[in-house]
Recover the amino acids of this structure.
C-alpha cells in the first residue's frame, strides 16, 4: 500500500460488490460493517439536518460533507481512544465517530461560539477554518506524544497517533508543506488524511497539482497512499495501517482519499457556476453510503437487515429531532465573554473596555437612532 | 459597491494589457463576493488567474509579475486569510522600492474584503488595516462609496506603489451610481463628507454611513458634526483632519479594528500634537475592543454603531 | 543580557520538564546570539530542538506541543524573520483561548531579538512590536535590563498566555548582575526607573538606557525627568504613565519602530484621553521614521538617540 | 537525467579525471573549460577579498561561497542573456557570470545600500535575505514570461527561462514549496537550483530532509536532478538541459547541486561549534576549482596553460585591487534617501519627518550628550 500511488485502491465497487483483498483486516480487526453503515447514515443525517437548519435561518452557514462519509467513517473508525484528531471544518462524520455531540458542531455555524466543544473530552480538536494551519498543530502534538514516550512501546493502551485532516486545496498552502517536512525528518506519529474531494471551492484539483495528492509525500520521503474515498472498507484498512504504523514508531503517512464533495462548498456557494450537474450525478452514482448498503442488503440480504434498517430509520429521526431542538437551545454567549477569554487574567484596560461595553449593552441602545 | 469594483477592474483590464488579476476562485466563480464576475470570460484565464490555495504564492508571484512589467491585482478571499502573505507583503513588497534605491517599482494591488457585520464565522470579519499602515512602503486605501470604490481602485492600479485595497464587505451590497468620467479626488486625500462646526467625526469604510447617521441625529438636536472619510489609511491625510479640528475643537475617531495600535490612536496622537491648543476636549475613540472578533451572535452590539458614536460625541461635546 | 536570558531559560528548563525550546540553530550553535548556549548539552536534543528552517513550523508546532501539555519557548532568529509565522501567531496562537471559551491555554513564548544599532544588514534591525500589540490575545514584553530579562522571561514561560518576548539585541552584550531570588515586578507593570517632576519620558527596551542618559543631561540643567520603562507593550500599563503625567504635565515617548501605528501613538492617545486637563504640552514622539529601516551606514543618526530625546524634551518643556 | 535522484551525477572526479558521458554537451554547446576555470578563480578571488575587507572592518559581514564555485559557475555559464536570475545572498559567482560588477555586491554588506545594482541591467535580481522568498518572485516572473509569449517559440533570441537559487535550508520554508506547487501546475519556465551545501548555518541537511533535495520535486510532479555540485562540467550540463527545457516550454526542474560551504556561514559564524575541521578538510579535497585545474593542467598540460595561469594570476591581482578601492569608494547614502525611496511621491507627513531629520543631522548632534 506504500508503493507509488496510482489508481486509488478499492475493494468495494459502486455496485456493492466486495473484492477479497488480504490488506483488508479480518477477524477482531475487521471493520464492523453494520456499525460503519450506521455511522455513515447517522452522520449524513447530521449533515442533512444542518443544511435544513441553515435554510431556516438557524445557522449562518454549513459546509456539507455529503459524499465524503466513506472517507471520514473509514478514518474515524480506525481511531483508538488515545489517538488525537485535528480536523478542518468538514469532518462531521469523524466528529461523530470520535463521539463529539453533533449539536456541539452547530455552534460555530450558528454564531454562538467559535469553538463548541472541549477538545480534551474526545481528543477531537476544534474545527480550523484557516486552510492548512491545523497540520502544524498535529505535528506539534505528535512531537509531544514522542516526548511523552507514547510511541512504539507496543502497549496498545499507551501508543498514540495523531490524525490530521486536510483538503486537496490545503496541499498548496506553505504551512501544510512545512508540516510534511517536520513530520518526515522527525519521523512523527502523524497521519495526514487528505480528502481529495476534487474541489477547493471553485478550483478543480488540477489548479493545485498535476500529480495525485498522495504523491506529494514522496517528495518529503514518507509513504503516500491513494485510496477510493467512497469505499469505507478500503479507507478503514488504509487508515488503520497508517495509524498503526504511526503508533508503533514507523512515522508519518499521507493518505489521499479520492472522493467528491457532492454539495456546494457551503450553503453560501453556487456550485453550478463552476461545475455541471451531470458530473455531480456521476459521483452520486458512486456514493459511499449507497455502496455499503448495496453490499449489506445484497442478494437476499443477511438475516436481520430489515430490522436493522428500520431501527436505524427511527434512530435517524430521533437524532434529527435532537439536533433541531439542540440547535435552538444552544446558549448565546454573554457580551462579556470575549473580554473574559482573551487572556488568562483580564488586564485593567480590557476591564475598562468591558465595563463600558456592558454598560452600553445594558443601557438599551437605540434611544436616538 | 461590488458592481463598482467590478466595473473598475474591467476598465483597468481594458485600458492596460499588463493588468492581471490573481486570486482564489476569481475565475469561473467570480470570487466569493462576485467582484470579478464575468471578467475571466471577457479577458481570458491568463489575465484572470484562479490561483492555487496559497496567499504567500498570490502575493509573491504578483511581485515577480510586477518585476516582469505587469500590474497584478491580487484578491485575498477574506481579511483573516491575509496573514500567510504577511512575509511577502512586509519584507518583500513594501521594501523593494527602497532596496532598489527607487529604481524598481512594484505596482501590485492587494484587494481584501474587510470588516464585520455580515454574520460571518471566524476569520471572516477582521480589520487588519493597522498592520499595513504600520508598514512603510505600502499605501492603504479604503473606500466608503461605490464612486470612491471605482475611483480609488483605478488610482491604485495605475499607481506605481504597492497598494493594500480594503473593501468594506458590509458595503458590497450597497447601491450607488458610478460615473466613470467624474473627476476623482486624489487618492491620498481624506474627504469631508458632511460639513459641520461642533465636532469632527473621522472614520472610514463601512462606518462612514454610520457616522453620517449619527451626524444626522445630532443635527436634529442642533449640533452640526463634520464627518471626515479618511479614505487613505496610509499615508494618513492628517492635514484635513487637523484643519477640521482647528474649527471644531473636538474629535471623535471610529473604526472596527481593535483599539490598541489602531489607526485611531495614531490619528489622535497626531491631532493632539498638531492642534493641541485648539482641542477643547480629549480626542475620543470608538473602536473594536481588544479581544478577538466575537462569535457573530454578539456582533450587532459589538460593532461601533450609531449609538456608540452618539455616546462618544455627547461625551466630547460635554467637555 | 544574553547571559541573563540563558540563565532564565536554564532555570525554567530545570524547574519544569514540560518546557521545550524550539528554534533555528539553538542547539549545538547555541543560537546566533548564544542565548541558548550549553542548554542542548545539558537538557538533550528533545528539549532543545534545532528546528527545520520554517518559522510557521516553529510557531505552529509549538501550538501543537502546548495542546499536548508542553510549554514551548520558540526562538525566531531575527525580528525580520517572524513574518512567515504571522499566520500561526495571529489567527491561531492569539485566538485559541477565546475560541475554546477559556478552556484551553496555549502557554507559548516566542522570543525575538529586536531592534537596530548593531550595524546589521536588512531584516536584522526591525521593531515589529506594534503588530503584536495590535493582536488581542497576546502578551508582548520587552525587558531593558539583565535582571528584568531574567525575571520577565521566567514570568513569561510560567504564564498561561502566549507571550511575544522581545529581546533588544543591542542590549545582549550589556552587563548586569542577576539575582534569581530578587522579588520580580509584575510582568504587566511599567516601572519608573528614574523619578522626576518636570516631564515624563516613556520608552522600553534598548532606548531605556538612552532615556536615562537624556534624563541625566537634563538633571544637570536642573530639570528632573521621570523615566518610565514600559516593559509590557501589551497590555500597556497606562495607569503608571497617566499617574506620572498627572504630576509632570508633559510626556515624551520614544521607540525605534516606525511612528505611524506604533506603540507611541497608542500611548499618546490614551494619555491625552485620560489626563487631558493635566497636559501642559502635547505628547511628543521620538521614533523611527515611516520608511524601511535604512542601510546600516545611516543608522547612527537614524535611531532615536540622546540628542533627539533632548530635543523633544526641550520642545515639550518650552510649551 | 530526470529519473529518480540517487547518487549525484558526476563526470569530473576529484583527481581531475574526466569521464566521457554523452549528456555533456559537445561542440558549440560545450562548456568552455578555460572560461569556466577563469570564472571560478576570479569569483573566488572576489570572495576571498571580501572576507579580507570584512576583517579590516570595511564590510559588516560576508557570506562566503568558498567551495560552491563549481555549482555556481556551472549554472551561471548556462545562462543566456535574456534569462533571469533570482539569487539568495551567496551567489557571488553567478553574479560574476551574469556580468554584475563585483564591487556592487559589496554595498549590501558594507551597509551603504540594501540593494546595490539595477536588476534590469543584467537580469540579475537583488540578493534576497529572507529564506525562500525569491522563489515565488521567480515563479511570478516566469508567469510574466509566459504571458509575454517568450516560451517555446523556438527562437533562441526570444525564449527565456528564470533561474531561482535556493539553499538546502530553504526547502523547509513554506514559501519555497508554494513556489514548487505554482511552477508545476502552470508548467512554468523556471529552474530551481538548490545548492545543497550540507548546512543551513548550524543545521545539517538531515534537519531539513531525510531524502535528497532533488526528490522534493517528484512530490510536485516535476523532474528533480541530483548533480555533483563540485563538478562544474556536470553542473553546466544539468543546468543547461534544465534551462533549455524551461525555455522550450517543458516546464520546471529542481536541480540539487551537492556541494559544501567550506567557510563558516558568514564571517560572523563559528562553524567549529557544530562541525569538525576534519570534515571540512575532506570536502576541501573535493574542491571544484582544484578539480578543474587538475584536468586543465593534467599530464603535460595543454599548450599555453602556463601563460593562461600567469595571465589569470595578474587578472586576479587587478581584480583584488579594484575591489579594495571600489569598496572604499562606495557612496554612502544621503540621510534623506530612505524618505525619497519609500513611495513614488513622498507624502506630506513623510516630508515633515524628512525635514526634521535633515535638520537634526545638519544641526550637528552631540551638543549636550
Ligand atoms: C488560508 C486560507 N485561505 C483561504 C481560505 C478560504 N477558503 C475556505 S475553504 C477554501 C477551499 C478549501 O479547499 P480544500 O482544502 O480542498 O477543502 P474542502 O473545502 O474541499 O473540504 C478556501 C479557499 C481559507 N479558509 N484559509
Ligand atoms: C525566513 C528566514 N528565516 C531565518 C533566516 C536566518 N538565516 C539566514 S541564512 C540561514 C540558513 C540558510 O541555509 P540555506 O538555505 O541552506 O542557505 P546557505 O546559507 O547554506 O546558502 C538562516 C536560518 C532568514 N534569513 N530568513
Ligand atoms: Mg477540496
Ligand atoms: Mg545550505
Amino acid at each position: 500500500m506504500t508503493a507509488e500511488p496510482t489508481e486509488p485502491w478499492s475493494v468495494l465497487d459502486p455496485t456493492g460488490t466486495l473484492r477479497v483483498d488480504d490488506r483488508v483486516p479480518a477477524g477482531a480487526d475487521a471493520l464492523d460493517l453494520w456499525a460503519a453503515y450506521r455511522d455513515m447514515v447517522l452522520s449524513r443525517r447530521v449533515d442533512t439536518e444542518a443544511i435544513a437548519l441553515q435554510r431556516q435561518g438557524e445557522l449562518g452557514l454549513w459546509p456539507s460533507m455529503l459524499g465524503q462519509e466513506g472517507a471520514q467513517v473509514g478514518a474515524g473508525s480506525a481511531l483508538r481512544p488515545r489517538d488525537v484528531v485535528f480536523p478542518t471544518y468538514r469532518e462531521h462524520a469523524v466528529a461523530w465517530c470520535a463521539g463529539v455531540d453533533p449539536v456541539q458542531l452547530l455552534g460555530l455555524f450558528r454564531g454562538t461560539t467559535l469553538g463548541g466543544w472541549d477538545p480534551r473530552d474526545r481528543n477531537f480538536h476544534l474545527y480550523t477554518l484557516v486552510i492548512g494551519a491545523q497540520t502544524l498543530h498535529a505535528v506539534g502534538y505528535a512531537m509531544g506524544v514522542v516526548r511523552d514516550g507514547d510511541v512504539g512501546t507496543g502497549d496498545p493502551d499507551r501508543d498514540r497517533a495523531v490524525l490530521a485532516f486536510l483538503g486537496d486545496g490545503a496541499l498548496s498552502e506553505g504551512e501544510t508543506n512545512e508540516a510534511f517536512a517536520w513530520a518526515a525528518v522527525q519521523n512523527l506519529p502523524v497521519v495526514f488524511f487528505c480528502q481529495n474531494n476534487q474541489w477547493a471551492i471553485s478550483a478543480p484539483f488540477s489548479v493545485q497539482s498535476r500529480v495525485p495528492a498522495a504523491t506529494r509525500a514522496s517528495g518529503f520521503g514518507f509513504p503516500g497512499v491513494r485510496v477510493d474515498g467512497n469505499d469505507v472498507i478500503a479507507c478503514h484498512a488504509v487508515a488503520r495501517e497508517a495509524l498503526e504504523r504511526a503508533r508503533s514508531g514507523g512515522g508519518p503517512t499521507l493518505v489521499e482519499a479520492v472522493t467528491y464533495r457532492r454539495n456546494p462548498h457551503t450553503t453560501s456557494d453556487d456550485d453550478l457556476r463552476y461545475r455541471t450537474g451531470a458530473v455531480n450525478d456521476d459521483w452520486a452514482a458512486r456514493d459511499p453510503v449507497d455502496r455499503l448498503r448495496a453490499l449489506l442488503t445484497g442478494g437476499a440480504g443477511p438475516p436481520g437487515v430489515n430490522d436493522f434498517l428500520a431501527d436505524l430509520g427511527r434512530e435517524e429521526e430521533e437524532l434529527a429531532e435532537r439536533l433541531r431542538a439542540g440547535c435552538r437551545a444552544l446558549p448565546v454567549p454573554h457580551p462579556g465573554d470575549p473580554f473574559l477569554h482573551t487572556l488568562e487574567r483580564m488586564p485593567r484596560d480590557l476591564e475598562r473596555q468591558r465595563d463600558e461595553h456592558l454598560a452600553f449593552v445594558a443601557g438599551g441602545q437605540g434611544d436616538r437612532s | 459597491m461590488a458592481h463598482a469594483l467590478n466595473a473598475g477592474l474591467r476598465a483597468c483590464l481594458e485600458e492596460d494589457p499588463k493588468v492581471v488579476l490573481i486570486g482564489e476562485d476569481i475565475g469561473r466563480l467570480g470570487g466569493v463576493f462576485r467582484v470579478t464576475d464575468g471578467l475571466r470570460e471577457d479577458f481570458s484565464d491568463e489575465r484572470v488567474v484562479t490561483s492555487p490555495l496559497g496567499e504567500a504564492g498570490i502575493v509573491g508571484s504578483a511581485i515577480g509579475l510586477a518585476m516582469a512589467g505587469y500590474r497584478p491585482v491580487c484578491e485575498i478571499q477574506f481579511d483573516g486569510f491575509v496573514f500567510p502573505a504577511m512575509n511577502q507583503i512586509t519584507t518583500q513588497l513594501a521594501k523593494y522600492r527602497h532596496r532598489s534605491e527607487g529604481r524598481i517599482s512594484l505596482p501590485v494591488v492587494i484587494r481584501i474584503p474587510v470588516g464585520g457585520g455580515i454574520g460571518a464565522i471566524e476569520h471572516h470579519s477582521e480589520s487588519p488595516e493597522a498592520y499595513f499602515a504600520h508598514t512603510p512602503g505600502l499605501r492603504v486605501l479604503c473606500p466608503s462609496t461605490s464612486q470612491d470604490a471605482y475611483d480609488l481602485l483605478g488610482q491604485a492600479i495605475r499607481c506605481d506603489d504597492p497598494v493594500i485595497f480594503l473593501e468594506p464587505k458590509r458595503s458590497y451590497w450597497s447601491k450607488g451610481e458610478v460615473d466613470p468620467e467624474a473627476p476623482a479626488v486624489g487618492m491620498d486625500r481624506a474627504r469631508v463628507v458632511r460639513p459641520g462646526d461642533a465636532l469632527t467625526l473621522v472614520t472610514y469604510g463601512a462606518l462612514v454611513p454610520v457616522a453620517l447617521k449619527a451626524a444626522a441625529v445630532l443635527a436634529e438636536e442642533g449640533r452640526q458634526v463634520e464627518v471626515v472619510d479618511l479614505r487613505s489609511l496610509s499615508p494618513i491625510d492628517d492635514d484635513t483632519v487637523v484643519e477640521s479640528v482647528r474649527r471644531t475643537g473636538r474629535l471623535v475617531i471610529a473604526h472596527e479594528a481593535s483599539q490598541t495600535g489602531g489607526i485611531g490612536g495614531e490619528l489622535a496622537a497626531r491631532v493632539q500634537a498638531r492642534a493641541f491648543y485648539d482641542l477643547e476636549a480629549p480626542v475620543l475613540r470608538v473602536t473594536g475592543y481588544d479581544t478577538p472578533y466575537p462569535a457573530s451572535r454578539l456582533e450587532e452590539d459589538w460593532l461601533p454603531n450609531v449609538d456608540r458614536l452618539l455616546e462618544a460625541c455627547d461625551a466630547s461635546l460635554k467637555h
